[in-house]
Design brief:
Elements lengths: L1 H5 L1 H39 L6 E2 L6 E2 L4 E5 L5 E6 H10 L2 E3 L7 E3 L5
Antiparallel strand pairs: 1-2, 3-4, 5-6
Bound molecules: zinc ion.
Amino acid sequence: MQAIESAGHGGKIKRKEKVEAILARLRLLRGQVSELRKKCEALKLQTPNQADLICSECGKLIESGQEVALKNSLGRIKAYYHRDCFMEIWRSQVWVFDYSQPGFLRFAEDDA
Ligand SMILES: [Zn+2]
């Protein structure tokens, strides 16, 4: 307390500058917080409620209802894809139809 009093007039001005600097910093932080909050809300919108499915082609989250499940020859789900990503693979791959298995579609390369 005594130290502040003895600082005199010059000290008061310095303190005022300090307060203004702190206020400016607070305003900046507040802006950053609201920016972060916006980003969080955007992320929340992207996150599906169900267990997160990751596309095996592009590595991004798949929104619910947009997934395509690829099964192996035992009928177990091998991978998930976006519909669009799956269509790209579909066009670029040679497929074999294996009607003896429940998951009857396979990549031709698995046939070896
Ligand atoms: Zn994808």
